[in-house]
Amino acid sequence: MKEIVLAGGCFWGVEEYFSRIPGVVETKVGYANGTVPNPTYEQVKTSTTGHAESVYIQYDEHKINLEEILEKYWEIIDPTLLNRQGPDIGSQYRTGIFFIHPDDEEIIKKSKNEEQKKYDQPIVTEIKPLKSFYPAEEYHQKYLKKNSNGYCHIKL
Question: Which Pfam families does the UniProt record give (predicted)?
């Protein structure tokens, strides 16, 4: 199994989107690459913790590879927007690809360079090693499965 953490705005929709993809084994929403240990949602939503709302994705690389995961990721975000996606604004809603395996960095950068060809504006999506990931509160996990009328900026 391989792992990657993706930030793409509100994490509810990103998690639901990736949970439906064959080969994705597990998804978990949480807070990535901030400065506050074990932050709460109340802290993260203030844009003062440095965390991005993110989704941990574990996938079976024999069924789907990182390139395919990234292709699907680029489809659901606007990588040229800084600190926002859809109507959600704040640094916690920034886009980011946080890799766990150093070998993935080259694949990610190549994917970003290919995606950049589609835009006149520069892609501002962060590409960084994962420094921290704290699972979000239980009520955020699988939120759109539990709340079918819940908000989502992604067309599911």
Answer: PMSR (PF01625)
Tell me, yes or no, whether 154 lies in a domain: no
List the CATH number of the domain containing 104: 3.30.1060.10
Q: Considering the entire predicted model, what is its pTM?
A: 0.96
Give how many domains the chain has, as a whole number: 1
Report the distance separating Cα 89 and Cα 2, nearest Å: 30
C-alpha 124: how far from its chain's center?
14
- What one-character DSSP code corresponds to residue 74? H
Q: Which two tokens stand for residue 111?
A: 């994917």
Q: What is the pLDDT of residues 29-77, one digit of tens each?
A: 999 999 999 999 999 999 999 999 999 999 999 999 999 999 999 999 9
Active site annotation includes 10: yes
Provide the domain limits for residue 64: 2-146
Report the number of secondary-structure helices (H) and strands (E) in the chain. 5, 8
